[in-house]
Specification:
This protein has 219 residues and is mostly helical. Helix content is 79%, strand content 0%. Helix 1 runs antiparallel to helix 2 and helix 3 packs antiparallel against helix 4.
Length: 219
């Protein structure tokens, strides 16, 4: 191990010991509750930081971003549960999934040949959005989830590769988007109005074509 890395790890170890001592001291003084849980959050955070450090030192080790993002997400979940329990019930899972999704996006941005990372990245961020919005009245999670997946595959179709842009993602993108929109319309009770309006517009279009055709023949 190189000397700069040893120095960094030693400094990090010292910071961890100081933080542990402060947490236990604050709990013993009655200033802070749940220090043991926060200690676990610190442990997960340090673990995630080490993985991110490995990635920053060598971008070829892109895989380290994924466990790093997951561990950072767990740290934030535990910390949020202890410091803001009311928010944790609604946002804890969203925070974790967002960290994991962003990790996959970092993989793609650093190594563009790993286009596959867009799929789990977009999926995780979509799940995070669904969890965050689940408390809203009248929210349709299925429709939003499928729309998010459709957008993910749509973005995948725009990604340049050595063989050119991929066309196959357009199929799942179109199907998922249509089903997602149908679910959202059904949840909003719009579908019962959409069909009659579509029939009226189709009828008007046919009449317009007929009238236009008759006018052109007379001319």
């Amino acid at each position: 191990m190189k000397r700069p890395e040893v120095t960094t790890l030693t400094t990090l170890g010292g910071i961890i010991l100081i933080a542990m001592g402060l947490l236990f001291l604050l709990e013993n003084l009655g200033v802070l509750r749940g220090a043991f849980a926060l200690l676990w959050a610190l442990v997960f955070g340090v673990g995630g930081g080490l993985f991110l450090y490995v990635f920053l030192m060598d971008r070829a080790r892109w895989w380290a971003v994924i466990p790093g993002g997951a561990l950072i997400g767990i740290m934030l979940m535990i910390a949020l549960d202890q410091l803001a329990p009311d928010l944790s019930s609604e946002w804890g899972g969203a925070v974790f999934m967002a960290c994991l999704g962003l990790a996959f996006w970092v993989v793609y941005l650093v190594a563009r040949e790993h286009w596959w990372a867009i799929i789990p990245g977009g999926t995780m961020l979509t799940i995070a959005l669904v969890i965050a919005l689940s408390s809203l009245e009248g929210f349709e999670p299925g429709g939003v989830f499928l729309l998010g997946l459709g957008l993910t595959f749509g973005l995948l179709a725009l990604v340049p590769t050595r063989e050119g842009r991929m066309k196959w993602p357009l199929i799942p993108a179109g199907v998922l988007t249509l089903i997602g929109l149908a679910l959202l319309f059904a949840a909003a009770d719009i579908l019962s109005y959409l069909l009659p309006v579509a029939l009226i517009l189709a009828g008007l279009y046919l009449i317009f074509r007929m009238v236009r055709g008759s006018s052109s023949q007379k001319g």
